[in-house]
Amino acid sequence: MGLNPLHNSGKVEIYIQGESIDGLLNTCLREGIVLFDVERLKDYEWRCWVYPKDIKKLRHLIKPHQCSMRFGKRVGLFFWLMGLMKRKSFVAGFFFFIALIYTSSQFVWSVDVSGGDKDIQHEVQQWATSQGIEPGAWQFRLPSNEDIQRNLLQEVEGVVWVGIDSRGTSYHFQIVEETLPDPREEADVQNIVSTKTAVIHNIYAEHGVPVVEPQQFVNRGDLLISGNLVFDKTQDEEDTEPVLASAEGEVIGEVWYKMDVSLPLERNVRTLTGEAHSEYHLVGWDHSLPVWGFFNETEVSQALKGVEETNWSLFGYDLPFQIQKETFYDTQVEDILEDKEAVIRTVQELGRYMLRKQLPEEGEIKGENILHTEVDNGKVNVSVHYRVHEDISRQVPITQGE
Predict the structure, then answer these.
(1) Cα 257 from chain centroid?
(2) Residue 279 · residue 309 · CB < 8 Å
(3) What are the φ/ψ torsions at residue 288 (nearest 5 degrees)?
(4) Between β-strands 170-177 and 159-167, what pairing exists: parallel, antiparallel or unpaired?
(5) What value, to the nearest 5°, has the Cα angle with vertex 246 and ends 240 and 250?
(6) Distance of alpha carbon 236 from alpha carbon 63, whole angstroms
């Protein structure tokens, strides 16, 4: 009769008491009972370990040698599995939970569409529903992403490209809508004038006649590109009449800006104290359930929060629930006295940042000069002069008489 290999995967601690322990140990050796880690505690008490399969044979040898035996620790896989067998409902519930998670991961939980206008998004959403791509659908019954993409482009008008991301239990459609250019309307006749006082840097005239040159100084409202084109001669070549058109182009001018910026020499800096505590949430289905760490006795004031989230998946599918960890770091505010030169550099950077927010996208800062610096009431006051290249052109209608 074969022995169960699990019997050697565990061990039992036993204590043997009696006057004939030596004889008992010799008998165990002859009978093939393995005793290991044998240790003598007292004159008539020994401790050792034995495999579970040998316990029954050892019991029959104890009485003939007038000894007694008591059990201590039980360790190993054998006893762990025996414990599980006594908790069959727990084991069944665990495997049911695993099966439930796996089954849940095979369903589609969400379908969303992005890109295009709301009408085309609604149309794509309806098309996906008609194809069975909706919450509650079995994923293994759905076609591949390539088939979905090909069918959608063929059946939904107005979509020129679609990207499909089936990640876990969700489907995401990223679409690009077909856009037709608006018919070009005939523009009104117009000139291009200056929007700011500047020095002309470059002129790019697509239509019209430039009336200024590079390095020329202009004021706001001065004419830059005229819509009055070259004169066309009539048949008698004596009378001429101007041809009016819509002036188009770009005029880059050098514009000057002055920025007055102040910063205190002493500033407040928030630093970490080293104190922190974490809270754990079970998140899923747009809900959050507190799990652990909400009764921490450590008080954290002026906390800085950091968030981490697990990315659990099963068989390549993201699970619909995750564990979110929120860590609150305690901070304190310290006053730091800055060097004057460092504050001036910071003021210059701040001035450039503030100026860029005022400039058009194509505006470019070409140079800067510090006009004046002073320290007053703990603040550094700086006046900075900036040279900027930007488009100063603006189209205005041509009125009669121009």
Answers:
(1) 39
(2) no
(3) -135, 130
(4) antiparallel
(5) 125
(6) 145
pLDDT, position 327:
84
**Which of 295, 215, 290, 304 lies closest to 251 in space, CA to CA?**
215
- Give the residue from 67, 52, 63 showing the smallest Cα distance to 15: 67
DSSP 181-229: PPPPPPPPPEEEEESS-EEEEEEEEEESEE---TT-EE-TT-EEEESB-
The ranges assigned to domains in the chain are 5-82, 110-177, 190-250, 261-266+338-392, 273-334
Q: What is the CA radius of gyration of the chain?
A: 43
**CA–CA distances in Å: residue 145 to residues 155, 215, 316:** 15, 60, 16
d(CA 86, CA 91): 9
SS3 call for 92: helix
Q: pLDDT value at position 374?
A: 83
Please give the structure tokens belonging to residue 79. 């006893």
Specify the pTM.
0.40
CATH number of 5-82: 3.30.70.260
110-177 sits in which CATH class?
A: alpha beta
116: tokens are: 């295009």
Q: Among residues 157, 162, 165, 174, which one has the least CA distance to residue 123?
A: 157
Most confident of 76-90, 164-178, 197-211: 197-211
8 Å CB contact between 211 and 226: yes
Pick the closest to residue 21 from 2, 1, 48, 3 (CA basis).
48
pLDDT tens sequence across 334-346? 777 677 778 788 8
Beta bridge partners of 202: 252
Q: Who has greater pLDDT, 402 or 148?
A: 148
